[in-house]
Amino acid sequence: MSNPRKVCIVGSGNWGSAIARIVGQNVAKNGMFENRVDMWVYEETVDGKKLTEIINTQHENVKYLKGYKLPENVVANPDLKASASGADILVFVVPHQFVPGLCEQLKGVVKQNTIAVSLIKVQVDTGHFAKQLLQKSKNRKRKKTRNFQTTQMPSTDPNINGLNIKDKGLQLISHLIKESLGIDCNVLMGANLAHEVAAGNFCETTIGVVKEEYGPVLKDLFQTDSFRCVVVEDATTVELCGALKNVVAVGAGIVDGLGYGDNTKAAVIRLGLMEMVNFAQTFYKGVKIDTFLESCGVADLVTTCYGGRNRRVAEAFVKTKKPIKELEAEMLNGQSLQGPHTAIEVNTMLKNKQMEDNFPLFTAIYRICHEDFPPEDMIKCLHDHPEHM
Question: Do residues 124 and 172 lie in contact, with contact meaning Cβ atoms separated by under 8 Å?
């Protein structure tokens, strides 16, 4: 029998903590894994106490997942390298903009035969938006920091993080992790709201693996009676669904803002799904259509188009006429909106192939968000959609 696998969770927000509940419970009853799960926590102070100390004594992430206990075998650690040292499985569940910097810190620490799993639903900005970030970063003064033992959250400056900035559009998180650390990276995506998962409400998720042999191991790590996992050997499509559905959700929010009703919204969702499929097939190899029918595809798309930040902010954008950046600050408590940023990267790829007219919904959403295109004209762009010809 092989040695038990060590699991490390990189991240401890609400989704990271929810998945830590599942992983901690599963490894405790499965000899395939070490009993202890290290969870890297970006150190913060809550009511005068370190967050890691609170988690390790109260066994609860009181800041990001209050009211849900973590298993005692989940150990919070503010030192990234110490957490990941010797790990056989790395579970990445952090804000997407921090992945390049964290991977840079993990170089030389991660074993060659380690496998990764990304639970991050947003792509890395490598095109126009990343260049905007880089330009802004040049105008900022950087403060000097002392060298603490705790791991500092890396800068979002793509130049500092070693991100390869080119006008190539979407770079998936799993690809970035593989390129940075030289290890295989799988993905887990689905209609999975953190608090509902933590509460044990029934839901499904999709595990996209890059090799068939990883499927049984990852299913044992994540599946419970209420968190059902379907494994597909199609990691790229699984992850693309997680990025592209945010663009469609912006379209759904625009429909809500215009008050057009459920019929129109259903049409936008269907056409959005078709554009997701066509985009994936056009720009990526080995895409399997069946994957879009899994939780990562149609289920997550529907959930996002009826809830979630992209839909809500897009609706407010239409109703208030305020800039998206202003609405982000007002409505998202420091979080960023994924859909408009993804729309830029998607449009970069479409322009390069002169295919904007083949994707009228994606193109209209990009123009509404970034070129002052009237929201009222979005539906006009769909009258002659390729799906209707």
Answer: yes
Q: How far is CA 55 from CA 8, 21, 73, 78, 300, in A?
A: 16, 12, 11, 11, 30
Structure tokens of 389? Answer: 């010809």
Mean pLDDT, to the nearest integer, of 336-360?
Answer: 93
**Residue 176: which H helix or E strand, with range?**
helix 173-181
Q: Are 55 and 127 in contact (CB under 8 A)?
A: no
Contacts of 354 (CB under 8 A, 6+ apart): none
Whole-model pTM?
0.85
Can you give 15-67 as a three-state secondary structure string?
HHHHHHHHHHHHHHCCCCEEEEEEEECCCCEECCEEHHHHHHHHCECCCCCCC
For CA atoms 311, 313, 318, 323, give the dihedral sign. Answer: negative
CA distances from 346 to 218, 225, 244, 270, 284 (A): 30, 37, 9, 18, 13
Spatial distance between the Cα atoms of 142 and 211, rounded to a whole number of angstroms: 42
Label residue 10 by pLDDT band (50, 70, 90).
very high
| pLDDT for residue 292 is more than 60 | yes
Strand arrangement of the beta sheet that strand 74-77 belongs to? 74-77, 33-40, 5-10, 89-92, 115-118, 185-189, 203-208, 227-232
Catalytic residues: 245
Q: How far apart are CA 328 and CA 226, in angstroms?
A: 33
Q: Where are the alpha helices (DSSP H) in 89-127?
A: 99-106
DSSP class per residue in 320-358: H---HHHHHHHHSTT---HHHHHHHHHHHHHHHTT-GGG
To which H or E segment does residue 254 belong? helix 235-258
Q: Is the pLDDT of residue 167 over 70?
A: no
CB 222 within 8 A of CB 229: yes
